[in-house]
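hey so u asked for the seq, here:
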Amino acid sequence: MTIGNSSIILGLLPFHGYWTCYSIVRTKLLGPFLKLIICVFLPVVLILWVVVGIVGSIIGGILYGFLSPIFATFDAVGEGKTNVFIHCFYDGTWSTIKRSFTVIRDFKDVCFHSYISFMEDLRLKGPSNGKYYDIRFLYLLPALIAAMLGFMVDFPMISLIALCKSPYMLFKGWHRLFHDLIGREGPFLETICVPFAGLAILLWPLAVVGAVLGSMVSSIFLGAYAGVVVYQESSFWFGLCYIVASLSIYDEYSNDVLDMPEGSCFARPHYRRNKKESISNASLFSKSDSFNKPRPPARIDSLTNTRIDLKPIELLEGLFKECHRQGEKMVYEGLITPKDIEDAKSNKGSRVVSIGLPAYCLLQPLFHSVKANKSGILLSDNTEITATNRPKDAFFDWFLNPFLILKEQIKAENLSEEEEDYLGKLVLLCGDPERLKTSNIGSPPESERKQAELDALARRLQGITKSVSRYPTFRRHFEELVNTLSEDLSKKNNGSSSLGTGAQQVQISKSIIARIISNKSFKRNTSCNMFDQESQSVTARDIESA
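ran it, structure tokens below
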């Protein structure tokens, strides 16, 4: 993993530098002075990317190469396994190497395909309100001064707060782990996890040290954010207020994490002109509603809101299974053409296959949820994902809420079956305007307003799907899908060609019989020898043509 990821980082570094600079120069979102400053400091960002990427690859490769065989060894001694001694050495060695190559491939897809997608959005997207982002030099110097003051105040104070709370974290964690050990709960519930849970008890002090170091590092960015506040609010006073409030934000957040009494001994002045905006920024560092109402006990909360055990990888695999099923159907219907598949294989890309088909498959659960009158998203296996029971992965935090909003918008439209079919074809072909004009996607709604609303829904769903397509494993699954659809298309063409040959042979046989009948009916005076010669020559010509 270290060699592969480092080679990708260093090999793509010139391309990343050139294409980032080109996209920044061509974008309409940024003003000229901001473009100049970004291009000047771009080499620093690239150097940091190389250092962080290579160091992260080394650490990640060591941890993965060490932990993956250990977990595979525990699986090898499970029930129903024969030759346990051999499996203890074989399992987790070759499979770890193969999965390492998979990780390298996914990393390459992110660094190339996902990167190009991000830069394409930056280059083509225009400002929403008609005004580009630019630097106001009048507030640049006060912002830098506020950032330095924030760092000078927050770094020692937050480090001191973290050190004071570290003994509480140490004994609180040990108390919880020993409680789970005695009651066989939490990590000690499964016998196979007991060694790791015991290792957690021994290594818990290292976790506390890591938390303290993480707090020290985060205090740098938390204090430097004062410069952003000064620049956004155009006020140096609000930056000073933020420096004081950031101490209270961290104190309240750490109390919430450690289940300590709520509140803080530090003052929390307002650092935004709009009070609601200040609260929304504070929610980035603290849990919502944790300061307004008492939190229910953890056990009651776990019983009322049982989270679904669903991983993003499983969801993507289910999505591409549905893409395969729907893709086969569309290949045979002619909605997906050979040109679409060839473009998807090449560097040109096909928005019909890469974006339209996954968006169409994501649209079907939304229709299913609306018809079932569910508050969440109803999957194909009748599992409902809501805002309360969704998994904790960041993937669901990013994409679930937009889908829930989109479902409510579709529900408000009250679509008929014909309109649902029209919207599905529109989502499939929305990325290719020429195909949209030439293809028969059904009759649009009579109301121009409703047609515009369906067009907006289709574009919004395609935009969400494009964001999902940047997920690390998406490209690998997409290439497998394209190869499968290509095989299905070749089978379809072979079947149609064999069918055409069979029909041609039937037509040839009919022509022979017609000639024979015509010769018998209208050429009775002709000799039998001449008839035999003619029929044989006709048969020979037809066989040669076949």
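The CA atoms of residues 176 and 537 lie 96 Å apart. Residues 474-522 form the longest helix (49 residues).
lmk if thats what u needed
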